[in-house]
Design brief:
Pnp Oxidase, Chain A; 5 helices; single chain; alpha+beta
């Protein structure tokens, strides 16, 4: 593992760039783990839509299961796994909402059908049948016509602010490389872990 990269964000971006060249689908797919109000873990796949020196960004319906869980307990874990590279990255930290400007900018970049879908889907709630979803899509398509589709108030994003980032690389005989970055004030402290 390249121990010279003291910035975990720079290392992550380098690994993500390699994954973008080798993964057949969605190199930005990540397992997001939240916690129910009762303390039960809850995990699902989302797409990473941004990374900066503050953290890792994804977007969702705020009324979805993950949105409700993050409102109750603003902490999360992410796990990226790139099978073609035999690498993974784990991230743990607090979660904060993105700004309205960030959410607006990303929402505006989405395909028109995805913007309509954000309005039509009551994400994570029971669906009485596929026709109900298709009907809602048709209704919002008619409502917005050819005009701009504003971002729904119930749709935005979250940024995971990492306290811990672990880089894992497969090695022969399961003697893997593991390096952890721990947030230490404004910098990072690193340590190697046994596989």
């Amino acid at each position: 593992m390249d121990d010279s990269a003291a910035d975990p964000f720079a290392r992550f971006e380098a690994w993500m760039a390699e994954a973008a060249k080798s993964e057949p689908n969605d190199p930005n797919a990540v397992c997001l783990a939240t916690c129910t109000p009762e303390g039960v873990p809850s995990a699902r796949m989302v797409l990473l839509k941004g990374i900066d020196a503050r953290g890792f960004v994804f977007y969702t319906n705020l009324e979805s299961r993950k949105g409700v869980e993050l409102a109750a307990n603003p902490n999360a874990a992410l796990c990226f796994h790139w099978k073609t590279l035999a690498r993974s990255v784990r991230v743990e930290g607090a979660v904060e909402p993105v700004s309205a400007a960030e959410a607006d900018a990303y929402y505006a970049s989405r395909a028109r059908g995805s913007r309509i879908g954000a309005w039509a889907s009551k994400q994570s709630r029971p669906l009485e049948g596929r026709f109900a979803l298709e009907k809602a899509v048709a209704e919002y398509t008619m409502k917005f016509g050819i005009s701009e589709i504003p971002r729904p108030e119930f749709w935005s994003g979250f940024r995971v602010l990492p306290r811990r980032i672990e880089f894992w690389r497969d090695m022969p005989f399961r003697l893997h490389d593991r390096q952890v970055f721990h947030r230490d004030g404004t910098g990072w402290r690193t340590e190697a872990l046994y596989p």
